[in-house]
Amino acid sequence: MTTYPFSLNTQLRPASFRHWLRLRPARGHFRIGDGWLAAYLCLLLAVLSLAGVLVFHFPAQLTIPQLRASYDIPTLRAGLGALMILSGVFGVLALMRKRLTIAGAGLGVLALAALLGGADTPLGPIQASRFYVGLDWFVLGLLSTGIVFTLLEKAAPLREDQPVLRENWSLDLKHFFVMHLLLGAYLAGTNFLLVQGLGWARFEIVTEFIAGLPFIVQFFAIMLAVDLVEYGVHRAYHSHQALWGIHAVHHSSRTMDWLASSRLHVLEALITRTATLAPVFLLGFDQAVVNAYALMIGFHATFIHANIDWDLRWLEPVFVTPRHHHWHHALEETAHNKNFAVHFSFIDRLFGTLHMPRGWPAEYGIGAEEPAHSYRAHTLHPFKGLIAA
Protein backbone atom coordinates (compact mmCIF):
# COMPACT_ATOMS: atom_id res chain seq x y z
CA MET A 1 0.00 0.00 0.00
CA THR A 2 3.05 2.21 -0.26
CA THR A 3 4.56 1.48 -3.70
CA TYR A 4 3.47 3.92 -6.39
CA PRO A 5 5.55 3.48 -9.54
CA PHE A 6 3.71 5.47 -12.17
CA SER A 7 3.75 9.15 -13.04
CA LEU A 8 1.02 11.31 -14.53
CA ASN A 9 3.17 14.36 -15.34
CA THR A 10 0.27 16.60 -14.41
CA GLN A 11 0.75 20.33 -14.85
CA LEU A 12 -1.22 23.04 -13.08
CA ARG A 13 -2.07 26.07 -15.14
CA PRO A 14 -4.55 28.91 -14.60
CA ALA A 15 -7.87 28.82 -16.41
CA SER A 16 -8.30 30.60 -19.71
CA PHE A 17 -11.22 31.46 -21.94
CA ARG A 18 -9.66 29.34 -24.67
CA HIS A 19 -9.72 26.32 -22.34
CA TRP A 20 -13.38 26.95 -21.56
CA LEU A 21 -14.14 26.27 -25.23
CA ARG A 22 -12.19 23.01 -25.28
CA LEU A 23 -14.09 19.95 -24.06
CA ARG A 24 -11.91 16.95 -24.71
CA PRO A 25 -12.91 13.29 -24.96
CA ALA A 26 -10.61 10.47 -23.99
CA ARG A 27 -7.44 10.64 -26.11
CA GLY A 28 -8.80 12.77 -28.95
CA HIS A 29 -9.16 16.48 -28.19
CA PHE A 30 -12.31 17.86 -29.72
CA ARG A 31 -13.33 21.47 -29.97
CA ILE A 32 -16.65 23.18 -30.37
CA GLY A 33 -17.38 23.08 -34.07
CA ASP A 34 -15.70 19.80 -34.94
CA GLY A 35 -18.84 17.74 -34.35
CA TRP A 36 -17.54 15.42 -31.66
CA LEU A 37 -19.10 17.32 -28.78
CA ALA A 38 -22.46 17.40 -30.56
CA ALA A 39 -22.23 13.68 -31.30
CA TYR A 40 -21.53 12.71 -27.69
CA LEU A 41 -24.27 15.01 -26.41
CA CYS A 42 -26.71 13.53 -28.90
CA LEU A 43 -25.98 10.01 -27.67
CA LEU A 44 -26.01 10.93 -23.98
CA LEU A 45 -29.29 12.83 -24.14
CA ALA A 46 -30.86 10.11 -26.28
CA VAL A 47 -29.97 7.44 -23.72
CA LEU A 48 -31.35 9.59 -20.91
CA SER A 49 -34.50 10.20 -22.96
CA LEU A 50 -35.01 6.47 -23.47
CA ALA A 51 -34.50 5.92 -19.75
CA GLY A 52 -37.10 8.59 -19.04
CA VAL A 53 -39.61 6.92 -21.36
CA LEU A 54 -39.05 3.57 -19.65
CA VAL A 55 -39.57 5.23 -16.26
CA PHE A 56 -42.97 6.48 -17.45
CA HIS A 57 -43.89 2.99 -18.64
CA PHE A 58 -42.76 1.17 -15.49
CA PRO A 59 -42.77 3.62 -12.55
CA ALA A 60 -43.31 0.92 -9.94
CA GLN A 61 -40.19 -0.97 -11.01
CA LEU A 62 -37.89 1.87 -12.14
CA THR A 63 -38.45 4.65 -9.59
CA ILE A 64 -37.66 4.99 -5.90
CA PRO A 65 -40.87 5.24 -3.82
CA GLN A 66 -39.38 7.85 -1.48
CA LEU A 67 -38.79 10.15 -4.47
CA ARG A 68 -41.81 9.25 -6.57
CA ALA A 69 -44.32 11.09 -4.40
CA SER A 70 -42.57 14.43 -4.95
CA TYR A 71 -42.56 14.32 -8.75
CA ASP A 72 -44.59 16.78 -10.81
CA ILE A 73 -45.59 14.79 -13.89
CA PRO A 74 -46.22 17.75 -16.27
CA THR A 75 -42.80 19.17 -15.42
CA LEU A 76 -41.16 15.80 -16.03
CA ARG A 77 -42.91 15.49 -19.40
CA ALA A 78 -41.71 18.94 -20.41
CA GLY A 79 -38.18 18.06 -19.36
CA LEU A 80 -38.28 14.80 -21.30
CA GLY A 81 -39.52 16.59 -24.41
CA ALA A 82 -36.72 19.16 -24.11
CA LEU A 83 -34.12 16.38 -23.80
CA MET A 84 -35.39 14.70 -26.95
CA ILE A 85 -35.37 17.94 -28.93
CA LEU A 86 -31.85 18.78 -27.81
CA SER A 87 -30.66 15.29 -28.64
CA GLY A 88 -32.10 15.59 -32.15
CA VAL A 89 -30.53 19.03 -32.68
CA PHE A 90 -27.11 17.82 -31.56
CA GLY A 91 -27.49 14.74 -33.74
CA VAL A 92 -28.16 16.83 -36.85
CA LEU A 93 -25.20 19.08 -36.07
CA ALA A 94 -22.96 16.05 -35.64
CA LEU A 95 -24.14 14.53 -38.92
CA MET A 96 -23.33 17.77 -40.69
CA ARG A 97 -19.76 17.29 -39.44
CA LYS A 98 -19.84 13.64 -40.57
CA ARG A 99 -19.62 12.14 -37.09
CA LEU A 100 -21.77 9.31 -38.37
CA THR A 101 -21.11 6.51 -35.89
CA ILE A 102 -21.79 8.28 -32.58
CA ALA A 103 -24.50 10.55 -33.98
CA GLY A 104 -26.16 7.64 -35.78
CA ALA A 105 -26.25 5.61 -32.58
CA GLY A 106 -27.70 8.57 -30.69
CA LEU A 107 -30.40 9.21 -33.27
CA GLY A 108 -31.23 5.50 -33.32
CA VAL A 109 -31.74 5.48 -29.55
CA LEU A 110 -33.75 8.69 -29.85
CA ALA A 111 -35.99 7.10 -32.49
CA LEU A 112 -36.61 4.14 -30.18
CA ALA A 113 -37.57 6.52 -27.37
CA ALA A 114 -40.01 8.28 -29.71
CA LEU A 115 -41.52 4.97 -30.89
CA LEU A 116 -42.10 3.96 -27.28
CA GLY A 117 -44.13 7.10 -26.66
CA GLY A 118 -41.66 9.93 -26.09
CA ALA A 119 -42.84 12.75 -23.85
CA ASP A 120 -46.45 11.64 -24.31
CA THR A 121 -45.86 8.19 -22.83
CA PRO A 122 -48.83 7.31 -20.59
CA LEU A 123 -47.89 6.84 -16.95
CA GLY A 124 -47.88 3.16 -16.08
CA PRO A 125 -49.53 1.64 -13.02
CA ILE A 126 -47.98 2.61 -9.71
CA GLN A 127 -48.40 -0.13 -7.18
CA ALA A 128 -46.26 -1.52 -4.40
CA SER A 129 -43.39 -3.51 -5.87
CA ARG A 130 -40.99 -5.74 -4.00
CA PHE A 131 -38.32 -5.09 -6.61
CA TYR A 132 -37.40 -1.70 -7.94
CA VAL A 133 -34.31 0.16 -9.13
CA GLY A 134 -33.52 3.86 -9.16
CA LEU A 135 -33.40 4.58 -12.89
CA ASP A 136 -35.12 7.88 -12.16
CA TRP A 137 -32.38 8.81 -9.68
CA PHE A 138 -29.70 8.01 -12.26
CA VAL A 139 -31.29 10.25 -14.91
CA LEU A 140 -31.87 13.14 -12.52
CA GLY A 141 -28.44 12.73 -10.93
CA LEU A 142 -26.55 12.73 -14.20
CA LEU A 143 -28.48 15.71 -15.57
CA SER A 144 -28.06 17.81 -12.44
CA THR A 145 -24.69 16.76 -11.03
CA GLY A 146 -23.04 16.18 -14.38
CA ILE A 147 -24.06 19.48 -15.92
CA VAL A 148 -23.39 21.62 -12.83
CA PHE A 149 -19.96 20.19 -12.07
CA THR A 150 -18.82 19.98 -15.66
CA LEU A 151 -19.50 23.70 -15.98
CA LEU A 152 -17.79 24.45 -12.65
CA GLU A 153 -14.74 22.40 -13.61
CA LYS A 154 -14.46 24.17 -16.94
CA ALA A 155 -14.95 27.60 -15.37
CA ALA A 156 -12.27 27.22 -12.68
CA PRO A 157 -10.24 24.06 -13.32
CA LEU A 158 -7.49 22.93 -11.01
CA ARG A 159 -5.89 21.09 -13.91
CA GLU A 160 -6.63 22.88 -17.13
CA ASP A 161 -5.19 20.05 -19.23
CA GLN A 162 -7.69 17.53 -17.82
CA PRO A 163 -10.38 16.59 -20.35
CA VAL A 164 -14.03 16.26 -19.42
CA LEU A 165 -14.00 12.75 -20.88
CA ARG A 166 -10.66 11.89 -19.31
CA GLU A 167 -9.01 8.49 -18.98
CA ASN A 168 -11.38 5.84 -17.58
CA TRP A 169 -14.37 8.22 -17.60
CA SER A 170 -16.61 5.46 -18.95
CA LEU A 171 -15.57 3.13 -16.10
CA ASP A 172 -16.52 5.74 -13.52
CA LEU A 173 -19.78 6.38 -15.36
CA LYS A 174 -20.58 2.68 -14.85
CA HIS A 175 -19.97 3.14 -11.14
CA PHE A 176 -22.20 6.23 -11.20
CA PHE A 177 -24.92 4.22 -12.94
CA VAL A 178 -24.77 1.29 -10.50
CA MET A 179 -24.61 3.50 -7.39
CA HIS A 180 -27.70 5.42 -8.47
CA LEU A 181 -29.55 2.39 -9.74
CA LEU A 182 -29.08 0.52 -6.47
CA LEU A 183 -30.10 3.40 -4.20
CA GLY A 184 -33.47 1.81 -3.50
CA ALA A 185 -31.83 -1.50 -2.57
CA TYR A 186 -29.36 0.30 -0.30
CA LEU A 187 -32.16 2.17 1.45
CA ALA A 188 -34.16 -1.02 1.96
CA GLY A 189 -31.14 -2.99 3.15
CA THR A 190 -29.90 -0.25 5.46
CA ASN A 191 -33.35 0.27 6.96
CA PHE A 192 -33.69 -3.46 7.65
CA LEU A 193 -30.26 -3.71 9.27
CA LEU A 194 -30.80 -0.65 11.45
CA VAL A 195 -34.30 -1.56 12.62
CA GLN A 196 -33.38 -5.17 13.33
CA GLY A 197 -29.97 -4.49 14.80
CA LEU A 198 -30.37 -1.17 16.61
CA GLY A 199 -34.09 -0.82 17.22
CA TRP A 200 -33.55 -1.63 20.89
CA ALA A 201 -31.22 1.39 21.29
CA ARG A 202 -33.65 3.99 19.95
CA PHE A 203 -35.32 5.83 22.83
CA GLU A 204 -38.32 8.08 22.43
CA ILE A 205 -37.08 10.60 25.01
CA VAL A 206 -33.95 11.16 22.89
CA THR A 207 -35.70 11.35 19.53
CA GLU A 208 -38.31 13.79 20.83
CA PHE A 209 -35.61 16.06 22.28
CA ILE A 210 -33.60 16.07 19.05
CA ALA A 211 -36.66 16.63 16.87
CA GLY A 212 -37.62 19.63 19.01
CA LEU A 213 -34.34 21.48 18.40
CA PRO A 214 -34.20 24.35 15.87
CA PHE A 215 -33.61 23.31 12.26
CA ILE A 216 -30.12 24.81 12.00
CA VAL A 217 -29.01 23.16 15.26
CA GLN A 218 -30.26 19.80 14.05
CA PHE A 219 -28.55 20.30 10.69
CA PHE A 220 -25.10 20.85 12.17
CA ALA A 221 -25.72 18.12 14.73
CA ILE A 222 -26.48 15.58 12.02
CA MET A 223 -23.36 16.66 10.13
CA LEU A 224 -21.21 16.17 13.22
CA ALA A 225 -22.80 12.87 14.25
CA VAL A 226 -22.43 11.37 10.77
CA ASP A 227 -18.90 12.68 10.35
CA LEU A 228 -17.70 11.20 13.63
CA VAL A 229 -19.03 7.79 12.61
CA GLU A 230 -17.71 8.08 9.07
CA TYR A 231 -14.30 9.12 10.37
CA GLY A 232 -14.08 5.86 12.31
CA VAL A 233 -15.34 3.76 9.42
CA HIS A 234 -13.07 5.55 6.95
CA ARG A 235 -10.03 5.06 9.16
CA ALA A 236 -10.90 1.37 9.52
CA TYR A 237 -10.93 1.01 5.73
CA HIS A 238 -7.31 2.17 5.71
CA SER A 239 -6.24 0.14 8.76
CA HIS A 240 -7.51 -3.38 8.02
CA GLN A 241 -6.43 -5.27 4.94
CA ALA A 242 -9.82 -6.85 4.24
CA LEU A 243 -11.57 -3.49 4.39
CA TRP A 244 -8.79 -1.81 2.40
CA GLY A 245 -9.44 -4.27 -0.44
CA ILE A 246 -12.94 -2.82 -0.66
CA HIS A 247 -11.93 0.83 -0.25
CA ALA A 248 -8.95 0.59 -2.61
CA VAL A 249 -11.37 0.66 -5.54
CA HIS A 250 -12.29 4.22 -4.62
CA HIS A 251 -8.65 5.24 -4.25
CA SER A 252 -7.59 3.64 -7.53
CA SER A 253 -8.60 6.68 -9.58
CA ARG A 254 -5.61 8.58 -10.98
CA THR A 255 -7.88 11.52 -11.80
CA MET A 256 -9.88 13.68 -9.44
CA ASP A 257 -13.11 15.16 -10.74
CA TRP A 258 -16.84 15.06 -10.04
CA LEU A 259 -17.22 11.62 -11.60
CA ALA A 260 -14.41 10.08 -9.52
CA SER A 261 -16.58 10.42 -6.42
CA SER A 262 -18.82 7.64 -7.74
CA ARG A 263 -16.03 5.06 -7.97
CA LEU A 264 -17.15 2.93 -5.03
CA HIS A 265 -17.36 -0.80 -4.50
CA VAL A 266 -20.95 -1.90 -3.88
CA LEU A 267 -19.94 -3.34 -0.50
CA GLU A 268 -18.38 -0.05 0.59
CA ALA A 269 -21.54 1.82 -0.30
CA LEU A 270 -23.64 -0.59 1.79
CA ILE A 271 -21.25 -0.64 4.78
CA THR A 272 -20.69 3.10 4.87
CA ARG A 273 -24.31 4.06 4.38
CA THR A 274 -25.50 1.66 7.04
CA ALA A 275 -22.90 2.88 9.53
CA THR A 276 -23.45 6.59 8.88
CA LEU A 277 -27.23 6.32 8.95
CA ALA A 278 -27.08 4.65 12.36
CA PRO A 279 -26.78 7.95 14.31
CA VAL A 280 -29.52 9.46 12.14
CA PHE A 281 -31.79 6.53 13.03
CA LEU A 282 -30.90 6.50 16.72
CA LEU A 283 -31.14 10.25 17.32
CA GLY A 284 -34.38 10.78 15.41
CA PHE A 285 -33.71 13.97 13.47
CA ASP A 286 -36.68 15.72 11.90
CA GLN A 287 -37.40 14.43 8.38
CA ALA A 288 -36.96 17.90 6.87
CA VAL A 289 -33.45 18.02 8.35
CA VAL A 290 -32.64 14.56 7.02
CA ASN A 291 -33.84 15.55 3.55
CA ALA A 292 -31.79 18.75 3.59
CA TYR A 293 -28.72 16.84 4.76
CA ALA A 294 -29.19 14.25 2.00
CA LEU A 295 -29.18 17.01 -0.61
CA MET A 296 -26.13 18.63 0.95
CA ILE A 297 -24.06 15.46 1.19
CA GLY A 298 -24.85 14.55 -2.41
CA PHE A 299 -23.43 17.88 -3.54
CA HIS A 300 -20.57 18.03 -1.05
CA ALA A 301 -19.27 14.51 -1.72
CA THR A 302 -19.04 15.37 -5.40
CA PHE A 303 -17.59 18.82 -4.73
CA ILE A 304 -14.64 17.64 -2.63
CA HIS A 305 -13.53 15.30 -5.45
CA ALA A 306 -13.99 17.90 -8.19
CA ASN A 307 -11.32 19.37 -10.43
CA ILE A 308 -11.99 22.87 -9.09
CA ASP A 309 -9.35 25.41 -8.12
CA TRP A 310 -11.20 27.50 -5.54
CA ASP A 311 -9.33 29.30 -2.78
CA LEU A 312 -11.24 28.15 0.31
CA ARG A 313 -8.40 28.41 2.82
CA TRP A 314 -10.59 30.52 5.10
CA LEU A 315 -12.91 27.49 5.49
CA GLU A 316 -10.24 24.83 5.88
CA PRO A 317 -9.73 25.13 9.68
CA VAL A 318 -13.32 23.97 10.16
CA PHE A 319 -14.71 22.39 7.00
CA VAL A 320 -13.52 19.77 4.54
CA THR A 321 -12.75 21.40 1.18
CA PRO A 322 -11.64 19.93 -2.16
CA ARG A 323 -7.98 20.56 -1.26
CA HIS A 324 -8.40 18.69 2.04
CA HIS A 325 -9.88 15.65 0.31
CA HIS A 326 -7.52 15.76 -2.68
CA TRP A 327 -4.67 15.27 -0.21
CA HIS A 328 -6.48 12.21 1.11
CA HIS A 329 -6.24 10.73 -2.41
CA ALA A 330 -2.67 11.90 -2.99
CA LEU A 331 0.02 9.59 -4.30
CA GLU A 332 2.69 11.04 -1.99
CA GLU A 333 3.56 8.68 0.83
CA THR A 334 3.47 11.46 3.42
CA ALA A 335 -0.24 11.90 2.69
CA HIS A 336 -1.19 8.27 3.22
CA ASN A 337 -3.78 7.57 5.93
CA LYS A 338 -4.59 11.24 6.45
CA ASN A 339 -7.68 13.46 6.17
CA PHE A 340 -10.41 10.93 6.94
CA ALA A 341 -13.15 13.43 7.83
CA VAL A 342 -15.77 14.28 5.24
CA HIS A 343 -17.46 17.36 6.74
CA PHE A 344 -15.37 18.88 9.53
CA SER A 345 -11.59 19.11 9.13
CA PHE A 346 -11.14 19.80 12.85
CA ILE A 347 -11.94 16.13 13.48
CA ASP A 348 -8.72 15.19 11.69
CA ARG A 349 -6.85 17.79 13.71
CA LEU A 350 -8.36 16.42 16.92
CA PHE A 351 -7.24 12.85 16.14
CA GLY A 352 -3.86 13.77 14.65
CA THR A 353 -4.60 12.79 11.03
CA LEU A 354 -4.69 16.21 9.40
CA HIS A 355 -2.36 16.72 6.42
CA MET A 356 -2.62 20.10 4.70
CA PRO A 357 0.65 21.25 3.12
CA ARG A 358 0.63 24.20 0.75
CA GLY A 359 -0.61 23.63 -2.75
CA TRP A 360 -2.30 20.58 -4.22
CA PRO A 361 -1.16 16.99 -4.81
CA ALA A 362 0.61 16.36 -8.10
CA GLU A 363 -0.64 12.79 -8.52
CA TYR A 364 -3.34 10.46 -7.24
CA GLY A 365 -3.97 6.73 -7.00
CA ILE A 366 -2.57 3.59 -5.33
CA GLY A 367 0.10 2.55 -7.80
CA ALA A 368 1.04 -1.13 -7.81
CA GLU A 369 -2.18 -2.17 -6.07
CA GLU A 370 -4.35 -0.58 -8.71
CA PRO A 371 -6.94 -3.03 -10.09
CA ALA A 372 -7.43 -3.47 -13.81
CA HIS A 373 -9.50 -0.79 -15.51
CA SER A 374 -12.78 -2.68 -15.79
CA TYR A 375 -15.93 -2.78 -13.70
CA ARG A 376 -15.57 -6.55 -13.30
CA ALA A 377 -12.03 -6.16 -11.95
CA HIS A 378 -13.20 -3.49 -9.52
CA THR A 379 -16.03 -5.71 -8.30
CA LEU A 380 -13.76 -8.71 -7.76
CA HIS A 381 -10.81 -6.75 -6.33
CA PRO A 382 -11.61 -7.33 -2.62
CA PHE A 383 -11.78 -11.07 -3.29
CA LYS A 384 -8.68 -11.47 -5.45
CA GLY A 385 -6.88 -13.42 -2.71
CA LEU A 386 -9.72 -15.93 -2.50
CA ILE A 387 -9.89 -16.20 -6.29
CA ALA A 388 -6.15 -16.78 -6.55
CA ALA A 389 -6.34 -19.50 -3.91
Question: Can you describe what's shown?
Answer:
The longest helix has 25 residues, at 215-239. The protein is globular. It starts with 16 loop residues before the first helix and ends with a helix. It has 389 residues and is mainly alpha-helical. The protein has helices at residues 17-20, 36-57, 59-62, 65-68, 73-96, 100-115, 135-155, 169-181, 183-198, 204-211, 215-239, 241-251, 266-283, 287-303, 322-328, 345-351, 375-380, 384-388. Helix 7 (135-155) packs across helix 8 (169-181), helix 9 crosses helix 13 (266-283) and helix 11 (215-239) packs across helix 12 (241-251). It has 18 helices and no strands. Mean pLDDT is 88; it is low at 1-28.
Average pLDDT taken over every residue: 88
Query: Order of SSEs, N→C?
Result: HHHHHHHHHHHHHHHHHH
What class would the helix/strand composition place it in? mainly alpha
* Tally of contiguous helical segments: 18
Please provide a brief summary of the model.
By secondary structure, this protein is mainly alpha-helical.
Main features:
single chain; 389 residues; mainly alpha; 18 helices; 59% helix; disordered N terminus
Secondary structure elements and pairings:
Blueprint: H1 17-20, H2 36-57, H3 59-62, H4 65-68, H5 73-96, H6 100-115, H7 135-155, H8 169-181, H9 183-198, H10 204-211, H11 215-239, H12 241-251, H13 266-283, H14 287-303, H15 322-328, H16 345-351, H17 375-380, H18 384-388
Helix pairs in contact: 2-5, 2-6, 5-6, 7-8, 9-13, 11-12, 11-13, 11-14
